[in-house]
Amino acid sequence: MAAYYNEIEPYAAEWLRNLIKAGHIADGEVDTRSIVDVQPFDLQGFDQCHFFAGIGGWSHALRLAGWPDNRPVWTGSCPCQPFSEVGARRGFADARHLLPEWKRLIVAGKPPIVFGEQVPEAINFGWLDEFADGLEEEGYTVGAGVLSACAVEARQERERLWIVACADSFTLERTTKSRVERHSWATEPDVDRLAHGLPGRVEQVRAYGNAIVPPLAAEVIKAFMMGDDKWM
C-alpha cells in the first residue's frame, strides 16, 4: 500500500478508512496508536506517511497538486491546542506538544520531503525554531510561510503556518508566500450531514474543524514543485 495514516481519534480514523475505500485518498493503512508508540520500523515499505492525519487532507492536497501517490513524502499537522488562542496556551509544557515525537520519526526515517502545518501562534512559542533547527542539523533545508485560506478565495481567514523540509540539495526559499497563486474553489462544501440532531454530529464537527484546507495546502505543494528542478 502507498500510504500510512496515523490518527488517534476513532471517528476520524474510520472516516479515513472510508475515504481510502472510496478511492478519494491514497490507498493505505490507518494506525490508531498514539504517535508516541509508533516506531521507525512501523513505517517501512510506505511511500507516504501522514501523521495527525485527520480526515486525509494532506493526501487529498497532494493529489490536487499532481503529486503521485507513490512519490515519497511525509506530512504532519501537529496538535495546535498547546499554542492556539482558544486553548490554555501551555506551549511545550502541554502533553499534546508532539513535535518531538514527529521529529524522532523524521530523523530516523529520513524522508526526502516533509510538509507540515501549524497555527501561526506557535511561532512565538519557538515551535518553528524547534522544528527547523532540529532538521537543519540533519541536513534538511527548511522553508516556512504564514498563509491564509483567503489566498485561495475561501470565505474565511484561517491563517496557518506552512512548512516544507527538503533533504535534497535544492535550496528552498524561506517563504512560499510570493509563489502562491489565487485560484477559485468551492468555498461552501456540502455539510448538510452535520445538521443538528444527527448521530455523531459532534465528532463530525471536530473532524472538520481540525482539518487543513486542501486547496491551500496544494498551492504550497505546487510552489515547492515549481522550484524543484526534478519537476520542471
Brief descriptors of the model:
alpha/beta; Rossmann fold; 7-stranded mixed β-sheet; 16% strand
Strand arrangement, major sheet: 2-1-3-4-5-7-6
Query: What series of H and E elements makes up the topology?
Result: EHEEHEHEHEEHH
- Please tell me the CATH architecture by its name: 3-Layer(aba) Sandwich
What is the radius of gyration computed over CA atoms, rounded to a whole number of angstroms?
Answer: 17 Å
Count every beta strand, where a strand is a DSSP E run of 2 or more residues. Answer: 7
Q: What's the main sheet like?
A: 7 strands, mixed
What does this structure look like?
The chain is an alpha/beta fold and 232 residues long. It has a single domain, classed as Vaccinia Virus protein VP39 (Rossmann fold, 3-Layer(aba) Sandwich), CATH 3.40.50. It contains six helices and seven strands; from the N terminus they run βαββαβαβαββαα. Strands 2-1-3-4-5-7-6 form a seven-stranded mixed sheet, sandwiched between helices. It is globular.
How would you briefly describe this protein structure?
By secondary structure, the protein is an alpha/beta fold. It is built from 6 helices and 7 strands.
Detail the topology: elements first, then pairings.
Elements: E1 3-6, H1 10-22, E2 28-31, E3 48-51, H2 57-65, E4 73-76, H3 99-109, E5 113-118, H4 127-136, E6 141-147, E7 160-166, H5 201-210, H6 214-227
Parallel strand pairs: 1-2, 1-3, 3-4, 4-5
Antiparallel strand pairs: 5-7, 6-7
